[in-house]
């Protein structure tokens, strides 16, 4: 099973890119973030015509997450984190697909930091971590995939000295990420590529993609029941070079059935 995560940076504007990528690579399961579309504007028919079932949690202008499945049924479990059933920001959706629980997330950016947006980021991260622990307690195969807006280490960012005060790289964010990992999760990319330079995001400015001046902020975390089944973990970096594309590249893993 190939599971992918992709921050599309606006599903309406990037729909041709998304459909082209789906046709060329045919992942089995896809987690999408930053839909930037209200619930009723999700392009369900176009996704179905591409061969995918879908569930989504939209929001006007910002945020929004979705899970697509090519062959298996999607059994939705929840679309908000616990402790805030009226969560105004559409940042999480979770489903069971075959034998795997798939959590798709879009963690807040948090800039400018410090400030209210950074406080919200850390608060959301705390709630997410609590939910992640509950998922581990279930003892089932789980993948938590998405845009974490967290740069784990210096090797995950081009010129880390320029990012020391950014919300994605501040010590509080890195600590939250590493505390999450310490629950027992496996970072799929680093499991298979422990020392390589791997980026998943390249800014639109200053020819960041051309210079490979990127960040690794899109992550797959695997539960102990799923980690031994990990076979591949890669970034479709070439998609970032397409016309009118997202500033993220799709990231994917292959899991042994």
UniProtKB/TrEMBL annotation:
It comes from the Bacteria. Mg(2+) binds at residues 7, 34, 147, 149, 247-248. It holds the Pfam family Exo_endo_phos. The record marks 248 as: Interaction with DNA substrate. The active site is at 106, 147 (proton donor/acceptor), 248 (proton acceptor). The record marks 218 as: Important for catalytic activity. InterPro entries: AP_endonuc_1 (IPR004808), AP_endonuclease_F1_BS (IPR020847), AP_endonuclease_F1_CS (IPR020848), Endo/exonu/phosph_ase_sf (IPR036691), Endo/exonuclease/phosphatase (IPR005135), ExoIII-like (IPR037493). One of its GO terms (biological process) is DNA repair. Its cofactor is Mg(2+); Mn(2+). Residues 4-248 form the Endonuclease/exonuclease/phosphatase domain. Keywords: Hydrolase, Magnesium, Manganese, Metal-binding. The record marks 149 as: Transition state stabilizer. One of its GO terms (molecular function) is metal ion binding. Probably binds two magnesium or manganese ions per subunit. NCBIfam families: exoDNase_III, xth. Belongs to the DNA repair enzymes AP/ExoA family. This is Exodeoxyribonuclease III. It comes from Filimonas zeae. The gene is xthA1.
